[in-house]
Design a protein that fits this description.
This protein is of the alpha+beta class. Helix content is 40%, strand content 19%. It is built from 28 helices and 65 strands. The strands form 17 sheets. The protein has a five-stranded antiparallel β-sheet with strand order 1-19-18-17-16, with no helix packed on it. A five-stranded antiparallel β-sheet has the order 2-56-55-54-53, with no helix packed on it. A hairpin with a 5-residue loop joins β20 and β21 (325-327). α2 (45-55) packs antiparallel against α3 (61-73), α12 (1053-1083) crosses α19 (1315-1441) and α15 (1173-1224) runs antiparallel to α19. It starts with a helix and ends in a 47-residue tail after the last strand.
Length: 1852
């Protein structure tokens, strides 16, 4: 299954029987009782009766059977019903000695009722197979008895005697699992079937002890006892996968829960943790715990989560004592589970898997964890290491090597093991999935025995089986590549033969073919058919080189390959003349039978061949019935064995064949049955109706008309539909019934019937399109889901045996010659093989019909007897079957040729291949003949050309005349060019491939080479020197180098962090520097900006000089200030120490003291010596760079020497030529022997190997062709092609030198010469001799000098070689340290990151704390300032009161009064809301004021919001204002204090956090220190090579070097000598330091006296300076400021501008004064005119008044005279309205009105807005008004006009 399905099932986990999901991954199950349908046994009276029957054997068996049925059939109710039953019967436990009767429990054959078939028709005699693929199918019951399941049997196998005992299943549905009790007194057999049981048997009596019912629905997959043996756990298979815990002694279910939703393989109890279980299976593992809750005992499950690990099926696991679980995986590693999660995955070193396949089982034995894998290996692991395993990297792997290991064999696949019962025994018995049982000695000692294979069986499905026609022998084959021969009479295996491929079918040759019965024909999966001869080797004559072994032997007689697919069927013709083989490749091949089987041919069929059936002797025609799996049946006429096949293929054409394609009729049969059933039912109802009517007539009742006319309405149900399966149902088997007719058994949908079919007369239709139906059928009972897979007849054909898909065997008795199977009614059936996967493959009867043998897909082989037990004992008096004797002369025959290659050609393919080869040879022969003819024609043409060339020119034919047609030549040239182009196209890919390959080779081996090995050889000695073969530095080196440049040498993570951590400090320093720069910029002199000047020339010059003088003074002062600053900066602090002294003290601290060696456990690595991977990598880079540099320097010197030699050789050759020319002019006896000219060796110029030209390549091709012609024979010197080519090139380059002797002899002058010529010749000879000597001396000196240089350089290179070797050793050491540091790098990085985080957090807290302290200090300053302001306000108030102020107390109370003030907020609402809030607050304040007033000393209510009488209103207003300011300051002060308190709290919290972080930092530093110690200890374990000479070893013991130098210490002699010299230096230095200290003390005292004198002198000078200042300036002034005073240009310009403007303004002022005077005169004139008008107006008014009076008088005379009261009222109304308003008693205004109307700044008040207006007043009189006095209650002006001050409230 794939991982997605596994994960889905894992997520959809179901944790209870009802199928409810548990999404949390945990499952709970309550303490449940079995459901009602599970037939739970309770200890009732039936149990008592069973117990009584067990005690009293003489009791009637019928009563015991009834008691057993009562025990078994009592319905299981609820838990309450069970408890009531127990209370009623008084029994809660089953008796310890109660047993069941096995004879009444085991499953028996199914026999048709009322038949005479005996129950013991078949009796099991032996089992030859082993279901090795079943999980845990091997149990050890005692020291010599093994138990395993075989189908429906449990087999007990005696290891010593190999005898078998059998225990049959009780259900008849098979056995699911078997498990032995820890005490081996019992064993549990968990069965299969519908509601299977678990039967507990007692051993060795094999009596059923307990039966556990209702644990699962279909089958059990595994059971297990706990360590004490009191509980049993079982787990079911599909569909319920139920996990059940049993109290098996009482047959009670303890707990039950659904284990998982997929297959569960195992369930086990934890041996060390009671109450804990584990289950595993397909894609899961689950951990269970029995927990006691308030509702009872429950089973809680926790599903294991794989996390990052791939999902896997878990076959094996083991529970550890501490609760952990170790499980296997599909890829062979172990998984350590802890708490439902994978803690670590365990593998071997280098990432190798623990096993090469699935781990099937774990065993924890004596502190060693053993694993059993499918790779056939058993490995023992250290339990402690696995229990404490943990991963060290992100891979999640833990690497470990096994302590012990045993590999059983190459083809062994172990699946389970059981340990011997003997105490202190190391013997184990192992189940091999490849068909074996092994005995293993796992003591892992020197006397450990080799693995012993106790039993060997077939592995997997038994593919082929047949029996001998002459003896009780059986042959089998399977896909395990073996063929086995069994003697089922002696119950043993005779011989086994193994091959390269697995067998697929097998047939024993009939007696007609081999009368001795010793020939077996086997088909294999690669299409090969082998003829095997079986004989008794004891009957052979003794032949040299051969030994007799065993009682039977298989010998290969012939092997041929007729098919290209597995062979599925083999059959001999009825006369034994032809052999037919069928295969999956849809072919049937025919062979002639004889001493050698020859092929006849083959035919093709429509589908894969399922079986072959030759027609019997009773048929007239000899035909072969071919049964195909696809439902096709083909009848083939037997081919003529004498026919000769001379064609190109073995395919037989024209052979008469008939085809039948099965068409399903089962749906028709079902419909006809339904129609018949309905018709019978209708007839039955009709008869019943007629009977009722007849009865009614007899009784005299007349039927009504409705009853007579009543028609029964039948419900018309639809008939079953017609159905044709797609794809068609598979054909299982078939056999002939009569000529042209046959029986078929179909599988799938069409199972349940035997179909009688026959071939149609119309055979012209395509076989694939045919649809043939059987002409009749025979229903077979209970086979709708269990089809018949194989059919066989006894030799008398009176018994039909059927092998079923469910693994059962059926026997049908038949009448003689009943080919239509009409007597096939009653049957006998017995479940033999596994009911789920053990379908029968072969079923055979022995030659004498005494035995029946069966094989199944479960790997089991059973032998049954057809005789009763008494007759069987008589038949078995013969101890063994007879093995055929060998043929005469078989021992002298050679071994037959076998076909071992699976890809070998088949017979047909080989023949076609031979035909193709023949045709190819014929074509080649024709080509050769034509080429030969063309060669002859070419030879004749060349002869004609030569003859034509020899003719005279005038009769010679031109070349063009010899051409028959020039188009032939053009066509040839075109074709040649086209072929060249095609060849180039064809070779383009090869060319490109070779070019790319050459490029890759150059990049790999040449481009990466910086310098190759060049050897320089001396001229006159064998000394030589070679360069280093130097590779170019890798890209990795340059990357590391670049990183080193960026981060510095050896910069690691810690250094980078430190650099990063210093950024804050640097930034703060930068900020401080910038501030200093800013200060300097502020203090810098002001530079006058150039621009237009407004001053006159003289003033500007004067100002410029003053400025220059001030600048010089300022510069001088600034210089002096800097000097003083430098002086004060250089002044050391009182506690300051000399840096040199500090450095010396630090050096002494580091170098002095009792220091530990690095090997000490308590050695603390200093900070600067701590090493990490980055530093070590930097060291490696530096070392590689140095090595490369030194080697490069030496290579350059050697190459320079080589170049010198090249030049020297060239010069020597030129000198040799000169010498030759000189010696040619000398007599032979004067010629000195010329020195041998040196030459350059190939190793001195290796670069020439890569230089080639086209000539070189052509020569190389010629040499290669020449070597090919000589068939690769090398020349005598053994030179290769390249060496030979180089020798030729060197020979061509050498210049031959010849001696001048012959030439000198030819140039001998005549004897007669003059004296002058003789003298001149002598002079010439002397000169030539001198020149010869000079040349020889130069040549020898050059050679000698070169050799000397080479020797010196060689000596230096030897020393450099030594240093390079030491460097290489150092490089190895550094690399080992780097590998070790890489292992620690992750932990170190994590610790360093933790330390960095702590440091950063501490720095952050410190910065925050510093900021907080600064903010707190600022707040304190602000608070101090506010307090000062508050005290100033109080002082101002006290000063305003003055002395003896009678309102002092009142004003003080007003000043100190506390008023609830509304906090200032942003204006959000409207003005009305603000006014309302103000009114409310003022009312509250007034209320408080009233309370304060009530408590005053005067006892009267004084309003402090209103100035009292006789109190200065300005003083009152001032007091109110000061109070407002005081309150504002108090509010600010409260806010500031709150902020200060918050800052103080924040500081305290930061201090606490800093302490915590500091503790964490210390802990991190401690962890890092411990880690560095551990790392240093690991580094100390590395071996370092230090080459020493004997004189360097001073570690002596009695003058002798000890054998072991382990306690010695390696030191550098220079360092040791330096330390000794340092001791003397320190003694001298100590005395010098004492003298220096004494001198320093004296100097210190003198400096103190000098300082006191200077301080006194400074004080006197300062006093005199101040006195002079007072005398000159009258006060103490700043001389520096005075000196730096200079004219300010801007000020002077402004002054000049002011003077100019002042003059202009003065002139303008004069003009305005003139204008004012003129205006005054005009105003006087206007006033005069106005006064005149006023006087005239006054007179007019007086006249008007007089006229009105007169008018009034006249009117009064005309009307009644009013009373005086009315006149007074009228007068008051007209003239005294304002006066009456002013006399109204003023009411107390509201505070809001006071605020709105009062204006302290102006000192006036305005009328209230709601005041009604006064009536109009008469016009004012010209007389001046008289103002009222200050403080009066009422005031009026004459004329009734009130001044502005009189219309408001007088608050004084």
């Amino acid at each position: 299954m794939d991982s997605s399905e596994k994960q889905t099932d894992e997520d959809n986990l179901q944790g209870d029987p009802t199928g409810k999901q548990e999404p949390s991954g945990e499952t709970e199950s309550e303490n449940v009782q079995p459901p009602p349908e599970n037939n739970t046994t309770s200890p009732s009276a039936g149990a008592q009766e069973a117990h009584t029957q067990a005690e009293d054997p003489s009791q009637d068996k019928a009563q015991a059977h009834a008691a057993s049925e009562q025990v078994q059939q009592q319905p299981g109710g609820s838990s309450d019903a069970v408890e009531e039953e127990e209370e009623r019967t008084g029994m809660k436990k089953l008796p310890e000695d109660m047993y069941y009767n096995y004879d009444e429990l085991y499953s028996r054959p199914v026999i048709t009722a009322d038949s005479e078939i005996p129950e013991n028709l078949l009796h099991l005699t032996h089992s030859f197979g082993y279901d090795c693929g079943r999980r845990a199918n091997l149990q050890l019951l005692d020291e010599r008895t093994l138990a395993f399941v075989a189908g429906n049997l449990l087999i007990f196998l005696d290891v010593r005697t190999k005898e078998q005992r059998y225990l049959r299943s009780c259900s008849g549905g098979g056995i699911g699992a078997v498990m032995a009790h820890p005490s081996n007194r019992y064993f549990a057999v968990a069965e299969k079937g519908d509601q299977p049981n678990i039967v507990i048997y007692e051993y060795p009596s094999l009596r059923p002890y307990r039966i556990l019912r209702g644990g699962t629905g279909q089958a059990y997959s595994f059971v297990d006892f706990n360590r004490e043996g009191t509980l049993l756990a079982s787990v079911g298979s599909a569909p319920d996968y139920m996990l059940t815990l049993w109290e098996w002694r009482h047959e009670q279910v303890m707990l039950r829960c659904k284990a998982f939703s997929q297959d569960v393989y195992r369930v086990t109890f934890s041996p060390d943790n009671p109450g804990q279980l584990t289950t595993s299976g397909s894609g899961h593992i689950k951990f269970w715990k029995m927990a006691s809750t308030f509702t009872g005992l429950k089973l809680q499950g926790l599903l294991g989560r794989f996390g990052k690990t791939a999902l896997t099926d878990i076959e094996g696991y083991v529970e550890l004592p501490d609760g952990k679980v170790v499980s296997g995986s599909e890829w062979g590693n172990m998984l350590l589970w802890d708490g439902g999660l994978i803690k670590v995955e365990i593998c071997r070193k280098g990432g190798r898997t623990c096993h090469a396949g699935t781990i099937q089982q774990f065993a924890l034995d004596e502190g060693e964890l053993m694993t059993i894998g499918t790779d056939g290996a058993i490995r023992g692991w250290d339990f402690e290491s696995i229990d404490t395993a943990d991963c060290n990297d992100d891979r999640g792997l833990f690497e470990i090597e096994p302590m012990n290991e045993m590999v059983i064999g190459r083809n062994v696949s172990l699946s389970s093991m059981v340990k011997s019962c003997l105490p202190d025994s190391f013997i184990w018995f192992a189940q091999d999935s490849n068909g074996g049982i092994w005995k293993l000695d796992l003591s892992f000692s020197n006397i450990t025995q080799d693995p012993e294979c106790l039993f060997s069986f077939h592995a997997g499905v038994i593919q082929g089986m047949d029996v001998s026609s002459t003896s009780h022998l059986m042959a089998t084959t399977a896909l395990d590549r073996s063929v086995r021969i069994f003697d089922f009479l002696a119950k043993k295996e005779l011989t086994t033969s193994r091959y390269k491929q697995g067998g697929t079918t097998l047939t024993w040759a009939p007696r007609l073919v081999n009368p001795s019965g010793g020939l077996v024909v086997v088909g294999f999966e690669d299409g090969v058919v082998r003829l095997l001869e079986l004989y008794n080797p004891q009957s052979l004559r003794v032949v040299a080189g051969r030994s007799r072994y065993g009682h039977a032997e298989l010998r290969l007689k012939q092997a041929f390959k007729p098919h290209n697919a597995p062979v599925t069927a083999i059959a001999y013709e009825r006369n034994g003349e032809i052999l037919a083989t069928g295969s999956m490749d849809c072919t049937v091949f025919f062979f002639t039978v004889g001493d050698r089987y020859d092929p006849i041919g083959f035919v093709t069929v429509p589908g894969p061949v399922q079986g072959l059936e030759w027609s019997p002797q009773s048929h007239d025609n000899n035909t072969l019935l071919v049964l195909c799996k696809s439902g096709h049946v083909v009848e083939v006429q037997s081919p003529d064995p004498e026919a000769q096949n001379h064609g190109t293929t073995y395919h037989i054409s024209g052979l008469p064949t008939r085809h039948f394609t099965f068409s399903s009729i089962k749906s028709h049969i079902k419909r006809e049955e339904e129609i018949a059933r309905r018709q019978a039912l209708k007839e039955k109802r009709q008869k019943e109706r007629e009977a009722q009517l007849k009865k009614a007539k007899e009784e005299g009742l007349e039927p009504t008309e409705e009853e007579l006319q009543e028609v029964e309405e039948e419900e018309k149900e639809e008939l079953p539909p017609l159905y044709t399966p797609d794809p068609p149902s598979p054909l299982c088997c078939g056999f002939y019934s009569q000529p042209g007719a046959f029986w078929l058994s179909m599988g799938g949908y069409d199972s349940g019937f035997l179909y009688h079919c026959k071939f149609s007369e119309q055979q012209g239709e395509d076989p694939l399109q045919r649809q043939d139906e059987p002409f009749t059928f025979l229903p077979v009972q209970n086979t709708d889901e269990d089809p018949i897979r194989t059919i066989t007849f006894s030799s008398s054909r009176q018994l039909l045996l059927c092998g079923m898909q469910s693994g059962s065997v059926r026997a049908y008795p038949l009448q003689p010659s009943d080919f239509h199977l009409t007597s096939m009614q009653a049957f006998w059936a017995l479940s033999v093989h596994d009911n789920q996967y053990g379908q029968l493959r072969q079923l055979r009867c022995s030659f004498d019909d005494q035995f029946v043998l069966t094989t199944g897909e479960d790997g089991n082989i059973f032998s049954f007897s057809l005789l009763p037990q008494e007759d069987l004992q008589k038949a078995l008096q013969r101890s063994k079957a007879k093995v055929p004797s060998p043929r005469v002369g078989v021992e002298m025959e050679g071994v037959a040729q076998d076909i071992e290659d699976p890809s070998a050609y088949s017979i047909e393919t080989a023949k076609q291949k031979l035909e193709m080869d023949r045709m190819r040879r014929e074509a080649e022969m024709r080509k050769v003949e034509r080429r030969k003819k063309l060669a002859e024609l070419q030879s004749q043409f060349k002869q004609l050309l030569e003859k034509n060339q020899g003719l005279p020119e005038h009769v010679r034919l031109h070349r063009t005349e010899l051409e028959l047609d020039r188009r032939f030549r053009e066509e040839t040239e075109r074709m040649t060019a086209q072929r060249v182009r095609e060849a180039r196209k064809e070779l383009a890919w090869e060319e490109e491939r070779h070019r790319i390959g050459l490029k890759k080779l150059q990049e790999r081996f040449w481009d990466s080479l910086e310098s190759d090995t060049v050897t320089v050889v001396a001229f006159q000695s064998d000394h030589r020197i070679s360069t280093y073969r130097l590779l170019a530095l890798s890209q990795r080196f340059h990357e590391l180098k670049q990183r080193e440049r960026v981060w510095g040498p050896g910069a690691g993570g810690q250094e980078r962090w430190r650099n990063k951590a210093e950024v804050g400090k640097d930034s703060s320093n930068i900020t401080a520097d910038q501030e200093d720069l800013g200060g300097e910029a502020v203090m810098a002199p002001h530079v006058v900006r150039p621009g237009g000047s407004k001053l006159a020339g003289r003033q500007a010059e004067k100002l410029r000089k003053a400025t220059e003088k001030a600048e010089r003074a300022r510069a001088k002062i600034e210089k002096r200030r800097k000097e003083w600053a430098e002086l004060y900066a250089a002044k050391p602090n009182e506690n300051c120490e000399d840096p040199e002294d500090v450095r010396a003290i630090r050096l002494a601290t580091e170098k002095m003291g009792d220091f530990k060696l690095k090997t000490a456990k308590d050695f603390t690595v200093p900070e600067h010596l701590r090493m990490n991977a980055e530093k070590k990598r930097a060291q490696l880079v530096h070392l590689e760079e140095k090595i490369h540099e030194r080697k490069t320097q030496m290579n350059s010197r050697i190459m320079a020497l080589r170049d010198t030699k090249v030049r020297l050789v060239s010069r020597l050759r030129s000198q040799a030529q000169q010498l030759q020319a000189v010696q040619e002019c000398l007599a032979p006896h004067f010629c000195s022997p010329a020195p041998t000219l040196p030459s350059l060796l190939p190793e001195e110029t290796p670069e020439r190997k890569l230089r080639y030209t086209r000539t070189t390549l052509q020569r190389y091709g010629a040499l290669r062709a020449q070597r090919a012609c000589t068939h690769g024979q090398e020349p005598e010197g053994g030179q290769t092609l390249l060496e030979q080519l180089e020798a030729e090139i060197e020979g061509e380059e050498e210049t031959p030198y010849h001696t001048p002797a012959d030439r000198r002899e030819r140039e001998v002058e005549e004897a007669g010469v003059t004296e002058l010529e003789e003298e001149m010749r002598e002079v010439e000879e002397i000169r030539l001799l001198y020149e010869e000597d000079s040349l020889l001396e130069q040549m020898s000196s050059s050679v000698w000098q070169f050799d000397a240089e080479l020797c010196l350089l060689r000596h230096e290179k030897l020393w450099l070689d030594i240093q390079m070797k030491l460097a290489d050793l150092r490089h190895v050491t550094l690399f080992q340290e780097l590998l070790l540091l890489k292992e620690f790098e992750k932990r170190e990085n994590s610790l360093q990151e933790r330390l960095n985080a702590c440091v950063e957090e501490e720095e952050d807290l410190r910065s925050k704390l510093e900021e907080c302290k600064q903010a707190l200090e600022l707040k304190r300053r602000d608070i101090s300032k506010l307090q000062e302001r508050e005290r100033a306000i109080a002082a101002t108030f006290q000063g305003s009161l003055g002395e003896n102020n009678k309102f002092a107390d009142f004003l003080t109370r007003v000043f100190k009064k506390k008023i609830k003030r509304v906090k200032k907020k942003e204006k959000v609402g409207n003005d009305e809301e603000q006014e309302d809030s103000d009114e409310e607050s003022d009312e509250e304040s007034d209320w408080d004021d009233d309370e304060d007033d009530s408590g005053s000393e005067s006892g009267g209510p004084l309003d402090d919001s209103v100035c009292p009488p006789n109190c200065d209103s300005e003083l009152f207003e001032n007091t109110v204002q000061l109070r407002e300011r005081r309150l504002d300051l108090e509010e600010l002060l409260v806010e500031e204090k709150k902020i200060a308190d918050n800052l103080r709290k924040e500081c305290d919290s930061l201090v606490k956090k800093e302490k915590v972080v500091h503790g964490s930092l210390k802990a991190a530093e401690g962890d890092l220190e411990l880690f560095n110690r551990e790392k240093q200890q690991k580094l100390n374990e590395l071996d370092v090579v230090v080459p020493l000479r004997l004189h360097q070893i001073e570690f002596m013991s009695n003058g002798v070097v000890p054998c072991s130098l382990a306690p010695a210490l390696v030191l550098n002699t220079v360092a040791l000598g330096g330390l000794q010299e340092r001791i003397k230096e320190l003694q001298v230095e100590k005395s010098e330091q004492r003298d220096l200290y004494r001198q320093a003390r004296q100097q210190h005292v003198q400096l103190i006296h000098d300082r006191n004198d200077m301080e006194a002198k400074i004080q006197s000078l300062e006093a005199r300076c101040e006195q002079l200042m007072l005398m000159k300036f009258g006060k103490v002034v700043d001389l520096e400021a005075l000196q730096t005073l200079s004219g300010n240009r801007n000020l002077e310009e402004m002054r000049q501008e002011s003077r100019v403007r002042e003059a202009a303004y003065t002139q303008e002022l004069r003009q305005w004064e003139v204008k004012v005077t003129e205006a005054r005169h005009a105003v006087t004139e206007v006033t005069r005119h106005h006064t005149e008008r006023l006087l005239s107006m006054n007179s007019l008014l007086s006249q008007k008044k007089e006229m009105e009076d007169k008018l009034n008088t006249r009117q009064s005379k005309m009307v009644l005279v009013p009373s005086s009261r009315a006149v007074g009222m009228l007068r008051r109304t007209r003239g005294g309205g304002c006066t009456s308003w002013s006399r109204v008693k003023p009411r107390r205004p509201t505070p809001s009105a006071r605020r709105s109307t009062s204006c302290p700044e102006r000192g006036v008040t305005s009328c209230p807005p709601a005041r009604p207006c006064c009536p109009p007043c008469p016009p004012p009189q010209p007389a001046p008004p008289i103002p009222t006095q200050r403080g009066s209650d009422t005031s009026n002006w004459e004329g009734g006009i009130h001044p502005p001050a009189a219309r408001g409230w007088n608050r004084a």
